[in-house]
Specification:
The chain is of the alpha+beta class and 254 residues long. It folds into 2 domains: 168 residues, no CATH class; 74 residues, no CATH class. The protein has 9 helices and 4 strands; from the N terminus they run αββααβαβααααα. Strands 1-2-4-3 form a 4-stranded antiparallel β-sheet, sandwiched between helices.
Length: 254
């Protein structure tokens, strides 16, 4: 593996201070079809993708004061987490790569890549019974926050080699886990080790009046991997309130 260029090392350090502790870049011509959600003609023909994510609860603590603290003070319509993540990465890129052409693909923009597949080949996670990727150190407490296309031809040929592709089928924490805590903690029994999550059962339970999973996922919280990196209750309630609203809209509940 080629050593990461200085600008990438400095970019990672700056983003990590803001709670965005995951940051990797890879040339688009090294990605296979499974990484894309659009036809070949709609994919970037050159350049690199920069994927940024949070690891643990640091991002929530980094939000501006008016957008942090109690979940009741947050307005999901303004996307405070998305806006902060975009703004921080944009400023950092402007500082470290001021002359490099770039385009935001996520959270603002038409994202052509499957973020889960991209995170998998970058080695960020492996599959879990919950359908979420699980990180070797941070467990279930990571999330994708920004994806950028960069015209890296201007900064040298070593950029795209700074990250090695990882086998999607490699063993992960769930393969060696001695417990089934997450499976047993799921109220609608939507999980089964080694199988896909039963989304109908999950959504059906979450959208019930007074559901115990309305603003949290008890199975996710029961996972022992990286449990000390768990989001605080306000952050959990915020994210799950947004996902619940989306579920209700999709089934005509609101």
């Amino acid at each position: 593996m080629t050593e990461s260029p200085l600008w990438l090392i400095e970019l990672r350090a700056e983003l990590s201070e803001a709670g965005l502790g995951l940051c990797d870049i890879i040339d688009v011509d090294r990605l296979d079809d499974a990484t894309w959600m659009v036809p070949t003609a709609e994919r970037p023909a050159s350049g690199s993708l920069l994927l940024v994510g949070n690891a643990g609860a640091g991002l929530w603590r980094s939000l501006p004061e008016e957008n942090s603290g109690s979940v009741q003070r947050l307005d999901p319509s303004t996307d405070p987490v998305d806006s902060f993540s975009h703004r921080i990465t944009d400023k950092a890129l402007n500082r470290h790569l001021p002359d490099v052409e770039r385009m935001s693909l996520y959270p603002f923009g038409r994202c052509p890549a499957d973020l889960v597949a991209l995170g998998s080949v970058l080695g960020w996670h492996t599959p879990s019974p919950m359908g979420l990727g699980i990180h070797q150190s941070f467990g279930m407490w990571t999330a994708y926050r920004a994806l950028w296309w960069l015209n890296t031809s201007a900064v040298g040929p070593t950029v795209g080699a700074s990250t090695a592709l990882v086998d999607r089928n490699r063993p992960g924490p769930c393969d060696s886990c001695a417990t089934t805590d997450c499976v047993e903690a799921c109220p609608p029994q939507a999980l089964e080790r080694g199988r896909r999550i039963d989304l109908d059962a999950c959504i059906g339970h979450r959208t019930k009046a007074g559901s115990s999973c309305a603003q949290r996922c008890l199975a996710r919280e029961a996972c022992p991997v990286g449990s000390h990196h768990r989001y605080n209750d306000d952050q959990i309630a915020y994210h799950y309130s947004i996902s619940l609203q989306s579920m209700l809209r999709n089934i005509g509940g609101v």
